[in-house]
Amino acid sequence: RVRCVAKSFCRPAADAPLHLWDDSGSGGKPASMWIVNSAQVLWVALGHKAPQETFWEVAAESISFDYSGKPSVHVVHERVLSPKAAMVNAKVLFGRQPSR
């Protein structure tokens, strides 16, 4: 089964992928298997190099909700802003244009 979790409940995996197996010496196209997060998700890769993707894991052992339905786990993900958007945000937050 696949379970979906909101990204706001997650964080990037804390540990580097763990090498489980590769087909070195067996012929055919190179392939390898890796455990990529604390939930022990299996990743199969072409080649023998560790995967470079960002893998995610749940940020806490449990998630609870308050009376209004807001979750207790909040992970802030950085947003990439254009220079113009960053200046507008700085002006709104600090009441002035940032120095360059």
Structure write-up:
The protein is an alpha+beta fold. It is 12% helix and 21% strand. Strands 2-3-4 form a 3-stranded antiparallel β-sheet, with no helix packed on it. A two-stranded antiparallel sheet has the order 1-5. It is elongated, with a radius of gyration of 20 Å. The relative contact order is 0.19. The mean pLDDT is 78.
Descriptive keywords:
100 residues, alpha+beta, 1 helix, 21% strand
Largest beta-sheet details: 3 strands, antiparallel
Give me the oligomer status.
single chain
Number of DSSP E strands: 5
Q: Which range best describes the helical content: under 10%, 10-25%, 25-40%, 40-55%, 55-70% or over 70%?
A: 10-25%
Placed side by side, the strands forming the largest sheet appear as: 2-3-4
Q: How large is the share of residues in beta strands? A: 15-25%
Radius of gyration: 20 Å
Low-confidence stretches: none
Shape: elongated
Name the structural class: alpha+beta
Short description:
With 100 residues, the chain is α+β, with helices and mostly antiparallel strands. It is 12% helix and 21% strand.
Detail the topology: elements first, then pairings:
Elements (H helix, E strand, L loop, with lengths): L9 E3 L5 E5 L8 E5 L6 E5 L9 E3 L24 H12 L6
Antiparallel strand pairs: 1-5, 2-3, 3-4
